Amino acid sequence: MTTEKLSVLILAGGRSRRMGQDKVWMALEGVPLIERVVRCVLPLASEFLFSTNAPERFETFVRSMPVPSRVVTDHFARAGPLAGTHAGLSAARHDLLLALAADMPFVNEALVRHLVGLAEGFDAVVPQTPHPDSGELSWEPLHALYRRGCLRAFEARLAAGQRQAFSFYEDVCVRIVLPAELQASDPTMKSFLNVNTPVEWAEIQRIADGSGP
């Protein structure tokens, strides 16, 4: 596995409209979602960056971090996670950036280590997971690795008004990580579960307490 230093970006800029409250501070097993994500990857991180549209809510949390940490703001307004990832990559001190959504409570350190180990020679390392209904593979851009060399591709897509988080992949060298490879480190692939609605939150709680699938 590569020993290069890793910047970690936690994207926490969503408005949580479907949840009805700011989901990143909701506690699972007594720990806020964003703190769970941080704890999972802390052994790998040389720094943390937090992308949020409410930086004042993160001041105390950032000061408490055991490694260098900062809040970053978007350079492209109202352009979603693509802009947040661009902002993080622009501000990162290290060439390799791990981008994670703040509402993924089951991030798996072993899987992240595997992804980092694949990064040499690639601009991005991006998992693909099957859609629960159709089975079709979908990108996981907010559980992925990006190098600083992607910035020009990010900026070209954002300047063109494109907001899909995976819109620039055809412009860079991507290492795709398919389900069979992901399952070697995370057999159930629950690393990729996130929370958007009260129904999903209830399911996450069932999984956490061992009563869910």
Could you give the topology of this structure?
Layout: E1 6-11, E2 27-28, E3 31-32, H1 33-41, E4 47-51, H2 59-63, E5 69-72, H3 80-91, E6 96-101, H4 109-117, E7 124-130, E8 137-139, E9 143-147, H5 151-159, E10 174-177, H6 179-182, H7 198-208
Parallel strand pairs: 1-4, 1-6, 4-5, 7-10
Antiparallel strand pairs: 2-3, 6-9, 7-8, 7-9
Helix pairs in contact: 3-5
Structure description:
- It is a single chain.
- This protein is α/β, with parallel strands linked by helices and about 210 residues long.
- It has one domain (about 5-210): Spore Coat Polysaccharide Biosynthesis Protein SpsA, Chain A, CATH 3.90.550.
- It is about 30% helix and about 20% strand.
- The strands form 2 sheets. Strands 1, 4, 5, 6, 7, 8, 9 and 10 form an 8-stranded mixed β-sheet that branches. Strands 2-3 form a two-stranded antiparallel ribbon.
- The longest helix is centred in the middle third of the chain and has 12 residues, at about 80-90.
- The mean pLDDT is about 90.
What's the short version?
This protein has 213 residues and is α/β, with parallel strands linked by helices. 28% of the residues lie in helices and 21% in strands. It has 7 helices and 10 strands.
